[in-house]
Amino acid sequence: MKIENTEQPATKNLLLLDQQLCFALYSANLALNKVYRKLLSRLELTYPQYLVMLVLWERDEIRVTDIGERLFLDSATLTPLLKRLETAGLLARYRATTDERQVIIALTDAGRALREKAQSVPEAVMCATDCSLDEIVNIKQQLEKLRGKLINQL
Q1: How many domains, in total, are found in the chain?
Q2: What range does the record give for the signal peptide (predicted)?
Q3: 53 lies in which domain range?
Q4: What is the three-class DSSP state of 42?
Q5: Which residues contact 130 (CB under 8 A, 6 or more apart)?
Q6: Is 54 buried (19+), middle (13-18) or exposed (0-12) by CB count in 10 A?
């Protein structure tokens, strides 16, 4: 990608903080996480725990490996998250009957009930962005496209 600037050669501009894609993503992520932290505090969830719950609300009784793949998390990161959610009484873990190596995660009644309390979170986040639905959809599609391209480079 070539960045045009009439005042300085492009090579000098490449190392400016405000020219970095990574910094734009990082700082936007920090701001977004602050919004989520405020909203999720009433649910007593952290943002990563909320993501796990979203996966489980979509599909209950799912393998740990499937949750990890869906969230792009390795088991070293996911296991402590799941243990905290289990301790909070939101999910249960058990071994698959067909393959003892597989751990299955299932929502408890409390985990299912929490879904109702979380219903307002997506709309509140959208309001906080002050973006239209079309803008949100476009940003999300562009980020997913970027993620796919970056993953293909690994």
Answers
A1: 1
A2: none
A3: 18-119
A4: coil
A5: none
A6: middle
Q: Is residue 90 part of a domain?
A: yes
Domain-embedded: residue 53: yes
Q: For residue 35, is pLDDT > 80?
A: yes
List CB contacts of 68: < 8 A, sequence separation 6 or more: 74, 75, 78
Picking from 111, 3, 1, the residue whose alpha carbon sits closest to that of residue 52 is 111
126: in domain: no
* Global pTM value: 0.87
Q: Give the integer Cα–Cα distance in Å for 147 and 27.
A: 17
For residue 115, give the CATH number of its domain. Answer: 1.10.10.10
pLDDT at 3: 56
What CA–CA distance (Å, rounded) separates 69 from 39? 26
The answer to whether the beta carbons of residues 51 and 71 sit under 8 Å apart is yes
Q: Is residue 114 part of a domain?
A: yes
Q: Over the stretch 81-120, which tens digit does the pLDDT of each residue have?
A: 999 999 999 999 999 889 888 999 999 999 999 999 999 9
Closest Cα partner for 62 from 18, 24, 93? 93
